Amino acid sequence: MSTATERSAAQPSRAGQRADRDIHFEVEQFYYHEAGLLDEGRYADWLDLLADDLDYWMPTRTNRLRRQQALSIAARGEAAYYDETKDSLAWRIRRFDSGMAWSEDPPSRTRHLISNVVVRHVDPAESPEFTEDDLLVRSVFLVYRNRLVNEENVFAGSRTDVLRRTGDRLLVARRTILLDQNVLQAKNISTFF
Protein backbone atom coordinates (compact mmCIF):
# COMPACT_ATOMS: atom_id res chain seq x y z
CA MET A 1 0.00 0.00 0.00
CA SER A 2 1.42 3.43 -0.95
CA THR A 3 1.93 6.30 1.46
CA ALA A 4 -0.81 8.36 -0.22
CA THR A 5 -3.21 5.42 0.06
CA GLU A 6 -2.27 4.89 3.71
CA ARG A 7 -2.86 8.58 4.43
CA SER A 8 -6.24 8.58 2.69
CA ALA A 9 -7.29 5.57 4.75
CA ALA A 10 -6.12 7.25 7.96
CA GLN A 11 -7.42 10.78 7.34
CA PRO A 12 -9.57 12.55 4.78
CA SER A 13 -7.98 14.58 2.02
CA ARG A 14 -7.09 18.18 2.88
CA ALA A 15 -6.85 19.23 -0.78
CA GLY A 16 -8.29 22.72 -1.17
CA GLN A 17 -9.29 22.92 2.50
CA ARG A 18 -8.48 25.85 4.77
CA ALA A 19 -5.46 25.24 6.98
CA ASP A 20 -6.00 24.88 10.70
CA ARG A 21 -5.17 27.73 13.06
CA ASP A 22 -1.75 26.34 14.01
CA ILE A 23 -0.64 26.25 10.37
CA HIS A 24 -2.21 29.65 9.75
CA PHE A 25 -0.29 31.12 12.68
CA GLU A 26 2.94 29.50 11.46
CA VAL A 27 2.45 31.01 7.98
CA GLU A 28 1.78 34.48 9.39
CA GLN A 29 4.92 34.27 11.53
CA PHE A 30 6.87 33.14 8.47
CA TYR A 31 5.68 36.22 6.55
CA TYR A 32 6.51 38.58 9.41
CA HIS A 33 10.00 37.09 9.61
CA GLU A 34 10.40 37.44 5.84
CA ALA A 35 9.25 41.08 5.95
CA GLY A 36 11.77 41.81 8.70
CA LEU A 37 14.62 40.30 6.69
CA LEU A 38 13.71 42.40 3.66
CA ASP A 39 13.34 45.60 5.70
CA GLU A 40 16.71 45.00 7.36
CA GLY A 41 18.40 44.39 3.99
CA ARG A 42 19.31 40.83 4.96
CA TYR A 43 18.82 39.54 1.44
CA ALA A 44 21.13 36.51 1.73
CA ASP A 45 19.06 35.33 4.71
CA TRP A 46 15.89 36.01 2.72
CA LEU A 47 17.18 33.76 -0.08
CA ASP A 48 17.28 30.90 2.45
CA LEU A 49 13.46 31.16 2.65
CA LEU A 50 13.13 30.42 -1.07
CA ALA A 51 12.98 26.95 -2.63
CA ASP A 52 15.68 26.04 -5.15
CA ASP A 53 13.00 25.66 -7.86
CA LEU A 54 11.41 29.03 -7.04
CA ASP A 55 9.16 30.78 -9.56
CA TYR A 56 8.94 34.52 -8.66
CA TRP A 57 6.70 36.43 -11.06
CA MET A 58 5.22 39.92 -11.12
CA PRO A 59 3.23 40.55 -14.32
CA THR A 60 2.36 44.02 -15.55
CA ARG A 61 -1.23 45.14 -15.75
CA THR A 62 -3.18 47.55 -17.90
CA ASN A 63 -6.41 49.49 -17.49
CA ARG A 64 -9.18 47.75 -19.39
CA LEU A 65 -12.90 48.16 -19.76
CA ARG A 66 -14.99 46.01 -17.45
CA ARG A 67 -15.78 43.55 -20.24
CA GLN A 68 -12.01 43.12 -20.93
CA GLN A 69 -10.82 42.56 -17.35
CA ALA A 70 -9.50 39.10 -18.22
CA LEU A 71 -6.89 40.85 -20.41
CA SER A 72 -5.78 43.39 -17.78
CA ILE A 73 -3.03 41.18 -16.34
CA ALA A 74 -0.16 40.14 -18.60
CA ALA A 75 0.05 36.41 -19.29
CA ARG A 76 3.18 34.28 -18.97
CA GLY A 77 5.63 35.24 -21.68
CA GLU A 78 4.31 38.80 -21.83
CA ALA A 79 5.68 41.85 -20.02
CA ALA A 80 6.60 41.38 -16.37
CA TYR A 81 8.41 43.44 -13.75
CA TYR A 82 9.90 40.25 -12.34
CA ASP A 83 10.16 36.80 -13.90
CA GLU A 84 12.81 35.27 -11.69
CA THR A 85 14.30 32.10 -10.30
CA LYS A 86 16.22 31.73 -7.06
CA ASP A 87 19.46 31.92 -9.03
CA SER A 88 18.50 35.15 -10.79
CA LEU A 89 17.41 36.72 -7.48
CA ALA A 90 20.76 35.68 -5.97
CA TRP A 91 22.48 37.39 -8.90
CA ARG A 92 20.52 40.61 -8.23
CA ILE A 93 21.51 40.48 -4.56
CA ARG A 94 25.18 39.94 -5.40
CA ARG A 95 24.95 42.99 -7.67
CA PHE A 96 23.52 45.07 -4.79
CA ASP A 97 26.43 43.99 -2.61
CA SER A 98 28.98 44.82 -5.33
CA GLY A 99 28.17 48.54 -5.28
CA MET A 100 27.44 48.42 -9.02
CA ALA A 101 23.66 48.77 -8.63
CA TRP A 102 23.21 52.54 -8.71
CA SER A 103 19.52 52.17 -7.88
CA GLU A 104 20.46 50.79 -4.47
CA ASP A 105 23.54 52.85 -3.56
CA PRO A 106 22.77 54.32 -1.10
CA PRO A 107 20.27 51.59 -0.27
CA SER A 108 16.53 52.07 0.02
CA ARG A 109 14.73 51.92 3.33
CA THR A 110 11.60 49.78 3.15
CA ARG A 111 8.74 48.72 5.36
CA HIS A 112 6.74 45.65 4.33
CA LEU A 113 3.24 45.33 5.79
CA ILE A 114 1.54 41.97 5.20
CA SER A 115 -2.16 41.42 5.84
CA ASN A 116 -5.31 39.46 4.93
CA VAL A 117 -3.51 36.12 4.98
CA VAL A 118 -5.65 33.17 3.82
CA VAL A 119 -4.07 29.70 3.93
CA ARG A 120 -5.36 26.59 2.14
CA HIS A 121 -3.87 23.23 1.34
CA VAL A 122 -3.00 22.94 -2.35
CA ASP A 123 -5.43 20.97 -4.48
CA PRO A 124 -3.19 18.76 -6.68
CA ALA A 125 -6.04 18.49 -9.21
CA GLU A 126 -5.57 22.23 -9.88
CA SER A 127 -1.77 22.33 -9.43
CA PRO A 128 -0.38 18.86 -10.22
CA GLU A 129 3.23 19.92 -9.56
CA PHE A 130 2.36 20.31 -5.86
CA THR A 131 0.85 18.11 -3.16
CA GLU A 132 -1.85 18.73 -0.58
CA ASP A 133 0.94 19.04 2.00
CA ASP A 134 1.94 22.28 0.23
CA LEU A 135 0.10 25.46 1.17
CA LEU A 136 -1.61 27.94 -1.14
CA VAL A 137 -1.45 31.34 0.54
CA ARG A 138 -3.03 34.58 -0.53
CA SER A 139 -2.04 37.84 1.15
CA VAL A 140 -2.03 41.56 0.54
CA PHE A 141 0.88 43.91 1.08
CA LEU A 142 1.79 47.53 1.38
CA VAL A 143 5.46 48.32 0.84
CA TYR A 144 6.80 51.77 1.66
CA ARG A 145 10.15 52.67 0.10
CA ASN A 146 12.26 55.74 0.81
CA ARG A 147 15.60 56.57 -0.76
CA LEU A 148 17.86 59.61 -0.70
CA VAL A 149 16.11 62.83 0.38
CA ASN A 150 12.77 62.84 -1.36
CA GLU A 151 12.31 59.57 -3.26
CA GLU A 152 9.22 57.94 -1.79
CA ASN A 153 7.20 55.10 -3.25
CA VAL A 154 4.26 53.11 -2.02
CA PHE A 155 3.51 49.76 -3.62
CA ALA A 156 0.21 48.03 -2.86
CA GLY A 157 -0.93 44.68 -4.12
CA SER A 158 -1.50 41.01 -3.51
CA ARG A 159 0.58 37.86 -3.50
CA THR A 160 -0.35 34.28 -4.22
CA ASP A 161 2.27 31.90 -2.88
CA VAL A 162 2.80 28.19 -2.69
CA LEU A 163 4.71 27.33 0.46
CA ARG A 164 6.44 23.97 0.68
CA ARG A 165 7.31 22.30 3.95
CA THR A 166 10.86 21.00 3.95
CA GLY A 167 11.68 19.30 7.22
CA ASP A 168 10.56 21.65 9.96
CA ARG A 169 10.53 24.83 7.85
CA LEU A 170 8.52 26.50 5.13
CA LEU A 171 9.97 27.64 1.80
CA VAL A 172 8.43 29.82 -0.90
CA ALA A 173 8.18 27.62 -4.00
CA ARG A 174 6.05 29.96 -6.11
CA ARG A 175 5.20 33.63 -5.71
CA THR A 176 2.93 35.61 -8.00
CA ILE A 177 2.83 39.31 -7.17
CA LEU A 178 0.15 41.60 -8.55
CA LEU A 179 0.54 45.34 -8.03
CA ASP A 180 -2.59 47.47 -7.83
CA GLN A 181 -0.83 50.19 -9.86
CA ASN A 182 -0.66 49.82 -13.60
CA VAL A 183 1.85 52.68 -13.95
CA LEU A 184 4.71 52.82 -11.49
CA GLN A 185 5.73 56.28 -10.30
CA ALA A 186 9.05 54.89 -9.02
CA LYS A 187 12.28 55.70 -10.87
CA ASN A 188 13.18 52.01 -10.65
CA ILE A 189 11.92 48.83 -9.10
CA SER A 190 14.61 47.19 -7.04
CA THR A 191 12.38 46.18 -4.15
CA PHE A 192 11.53 42.57 -3.35
CA PHE A 193 7.94 41.73 -2.43
Query: According to CATH, what is the class?
Result: Alpha Beta
Mean pLDDT: 90
Biggest sheet strand line-up = 2-1-6-5-4-3
Helix content: 10-25%
Briefly note the CATH topology name: Nuclear Transport Factor 2, Chain: A
Strand content: 35-45%
Q: Which runs of at least 5 residues are low in confidence (pLDDT < 50)?
A: none
Counted up, domains total 1
Explain the layout of strands and helices:
Blueprint: H1 3-10, H2 21-39, H3 43-47, E1 50-59, E2 80-84, H4 86-98, E3 109-121, E4 135-147, E5 151-166, E6 169-179
Parallel strand pairs: 1-6
Antiparallel strand pairs: 1-2, 3-4, 4-5, 5-6
Task: Describe the protein.
The protein is globular, with a radius of gyration of 18 Å. It is of the alpha+beta class and 193 residues long. The mean pLDDT is 90. It starts with a helix and ends in a 14-residue tail after the last strand. Strand 4 (135-147) and strand 5 (151-166) form a beta hairpin. It has helices at residues 3-10, 21-39, 43-47, 86-98, and strands at 50-59, 80-84, 109-121, 135-147, 151-166, 169-179. Helices cover 23% and strands 35% of the residues. The longest helix is centred in the first third of the chain and has 19 residues, at 21-39. The chain has a single domain (31-179), classed as Nuclear Transport Factor 2, Chain: A, CATH 3.10.450.50. Strands 2-1-6-5-4-3 form a 6-stranded mixed sheet. The chain is built from 4 helices and 6 strands, in the order H-H-H-E-E-H-E-E-E-E.
